[in-house]
Amino acid sequence: MRGMVRTIATMIVACISAAVGGSPAVSAYPERPIRLIVSFPPGGSSDAMARIVQPGLERLLGQTIIIENRAGAGGMLAIDLVAKASPDGYVIGLGGAGALGTNLALQEKMPYDPRKDVAPVSGLAGSPFILAAAPSFQGASLRDVIAQAKTLGEKLSIGHGGNGTLMHLTAEMFNQMAGTKVQLVPYRGIAPVVTDLVGNHVTLGIIDPPSGMAQIEAGQIKTIAVSSAKRFPRLPQIPTLAESGLPGFESNGWFGIVAPAGTVPDVIATLNTALVKVLNDPDVVERIRALGAEPMPMTPVEYGAFIRTEIDKWSKVVGAGKPN
C-alpha cells in the first residue's frame, strides 16, 4: 500500500513540475525518414523537380527523403493520399496546377479539397507556356494571330496538351480575352503538338519550354509570346501575351509541396525553411532552369494564397467557357 501511495505521489509531483516548469521536451522533428509522394511517374518534370531538391532537403533535415511516385487521376491520387495521411509531417506531397488548382473547377467531385484538406508548405517551381506558330504562319506577333483569328474563326486551329490540361485552359483563356473563336485541338501531350507545328500540320500551339526549346532554338517553329506575367529568362527576346495586347493575361504550369491539413505549424515551418533554402541554392536554381522552369520559394501563407488565386482564376475561365 505504501509503495502505491509513493508511486501516486511521485506522479502528482511530476505533473505539478510539468505544469510549473513547462511540459517535457518534445522530440525534435524529423526523427525518421519522410515520404514525398510525387503525383506523376518517374522521368517526368515533377519527378525531376523532386529529385533535384531531395539531396538538399536530406542534408538540412538530417533524414532520408523517400520519393514515391503515385501517378493517377491527373495527379489527384497522390494528393488524396497526402490529405488522408497522419498530420505529423512524415508524409508530404508534390502536386501540380491540376491536382491543387484547376481540377476543382473541372471535376464534378474531388476526393479532397485543396483549400481545406492539405496544408501549403511552399511553391517548388513554375514554367510559362509559349504561344507558338508553324513556320508557314504568315505573321510574327500576337496582333497578327488575333487578326487572322478574327478573320478565319474556327478555320484557324491551336493545338494543346489535352482536354482539361492547363494548356487547354490557357488556350481557352486566350479565346476569351482576345474575343476569338480559334478551334482548340487536343493532343495526347505536348510533344505531338511540337511535332505537328514543325510539320505545318497545325497552325498554332500552346507548348511548354521543356518540350519545344530545341525546336525554338533551331528556328523550326515561331514563338509569338509567353504566358507568364514577366518575360521568361530562357527566352528574354519573346514578349509576354500581357504586353503584346492582352493585359492581365497570365498562365503558368507549377508544382508545390503540401502536407496533410492539421500538421503542426512548427513542422510546416521546419519543412518550409529547408525547402526555401534549397530553392535559393545557386546549383539548384541552375538545374531547375535547365528544365525550363523557375524556382518558386514561398512562405506557407503566400503559397496558400497562390493556390486559392489559381483556383478562382481557372474556375472563372471554365465557367465562362461552358455553353449557356
List keywords for this structure.
324 residues, alpha/beta, D-Maltodextrin-Binding Protein, domain 2, 2 domains, six-stranded mixed β-sheet, five-stranded mixed β-sheet, 11 strands, 44% helix
Amino- and carboxy-terminal Cα gap: 81 Å
The shape is globular
CATH architecture annotation name of the largest domain: 3-Layer(aba) Sandwich
Number of helices: 11
CATH superfamily (homologous) name of the largest domain: Bordetella uptake gene, domain 1
Total beta-strand segments: 11
Helices and strands: which structural class? Answer: alpha/beta
- What Rg do the Cα atoms give? 24 Å
Q: What proportion strand? A: 15-25%
Taken together, the total number of domains comes to 2
> In which range does the helix fraction lie?
40-55%
Q: Which fold name fills CATH's third level, the topology of the largest domain?
A: D-Maltodextrin-Binding Protein, domain 2
Low-confidence stretches: 4-26
Mean pLDDT figure: 91
Strand order, largest beta sheet: 2-1-3-10-4-11
Note the main sheet: 6 strands, mixed
Give the class-level CATH name of the largest domain. Alpha Beta
